[in-house]
Design goal:
Strand content: 15-25%
Number of strands: 11
Order of helices and strands: EEEEHEHEHEHEHEHHEHE
CATH superfamily: Spore Coat Polysaccharide Biosynthesis Protein SpsA, Chain A
Shape: globular
Helix content: 25-40%
Bound molecules: guanosine-5'-diphosphate, magnesium ion
Structural class: alpha/beta
Number of helices: 8
Distance between the termini: 25 Å
Strand order of the largest sheet: 6-5-4-7-9-8-10
CATH architecture: Alpha-Beta Complex
CATH topology: Spore Coat Polysaccharide Biosynthesis Protein SpsA, Chain A
Length: about 300
């Protein structure tokens, strides 16, 4: 019997992938990488996971440089304000959750819908006007030039100017230090809401298994590292004001412990002591059984 690798989401337009083993870490070897170097005219789709973003959505959207994205998708997580009306007025494509799912749940819908549009690169931008949308061309460049699969917009170079609260700066630096140690990278922050993903990374990552809460952001980074994705970062100016930051001390603390738990899980997987489903590439989950010429068709 013959099996054809495919994405369980059945969204795949890329070539099949296969895994090779480097140390204890399974790495995705991208067959398409042999032919594709620099993307020519990639389709770039911006997604905005929105929750009570009516006051900031328009300003965020208006500062996206013209021609830097082909389409903009807003997913509203059952906001209590007029986020949907504002998004519709701006002519954006809008999806509305019928009930509040959480920040991670919101991103799941965003990525599924962005992939359905045929996006080559998906940019996540928080609609709370915290990050500078004018940086989108810089954010996607490492992917377009085939140097990266995931690019993070780091706030740390502007952390003080941008007004990041002291305790967030401290926790951010500590968690980033831990993540750098575990992932073997040297990034300046992992906790940003301004990111760009290569399509094939989203297609091979089982992100639908991740949490619906804020830890989703780190789970998808851990999966990217596990699958051998290339990560890069750029510095991005940002600002803190009441609407741009709603997460208080309690939720931040829970998030911090969640990150440490995730890193422990990552290490246990690397040592082979546990096998988490979140670290199994999608095309391992199932495959299409090719039709055999001798197979009788349905009785007529
Ligand atoms: N879907 C969803 N998004 C949320 C919720 N709470 C906050 N957010 C969004 O999560 C993102 C990050 O939250 P934010 O308070 O800006 O965090 P900070 O900027 O890192 O302090 C923002 O885009 C918020 O709109 C929630 O309960 N559900
Ligand atoms: Mg924010």
């Amino acid at each position: 019997m013959e099996y054809v690798a495919c994405s369980p989401l059945n969204l795949s337009t890329s070539q099949p992938t296969r895994t090779i083993t480097i140390g204890n870490v399974r790495r995705l070897e991208k067959d398409y990488g042999k032919t594709v170097e620099k993307m020519t005219n990639p389709k770039i789709v911006a997604i905005m996971p929105a929750y009570n973003a009516s006051k900031t959505l328009e300003q965020t959207f208006r500062e996206i440089p013209p021609d830097s994205v082909h389409e903009c998708i807003v997913v509203d997580d059952f906001s209590a304000d007029s986020t949907v009306e504002v998004a519709r007025k701006l002519g954006l494509r809008v999806f509305l959750h019928r009930e509040n799912q959480g920040y991670g749940g919101n991103q799941k819908t965003c990525y599924v819908e962005a992939l359905k549009t045929g996006a080559d690169i998906v940019v996540m931008l928080h609609p709370d006007y915290q990050y500078d949308p004018k940086k989108i061309p810089d954010l996607v460049r490492p992917i377009v030039e085939d140097r990266a699969d995931l690019v993070l917009g780091s706030r740390m170079a502007y952390a003080i100017v941008g007004g990041m609260p002291f305790y967030k700066r401290l926790c951010n630096r500590f968690l980033t230090w831990c993540e750098n140690k575990v992932f073997g990278l040297q990034l300046s922050e992992y906790h940003t809401g301004f990111r760009a993903f290569r399509r094939s990374l989203l297609e091979s990552t089982p992100f639908l298994l991740n949490s619906n809460d804020f830890i989703f952001d780190q789970e998808i980074v851990a999966q990217a590292v596990w699958f051998g994705a290339r990560l890069e970062e750029i510095s991005v100016p940002h600002r803190y004001f009441p609407e741009a930051s709603t997460i208080g001390f309690g939720r931040s603390l829970r998030y911090g412990f969640g990150v440490l738990g995730l890193l422990a899980t990552f290490l246990l997987n690397r040592k082979g002591l546990v096998t988490s489903r979140m670290f199994r590439p999608l095309h391992h989950a199932y495959a299409e059984v090719a039709e055999s010429p001798s197979t009788p068709g349905p009785a007529s």
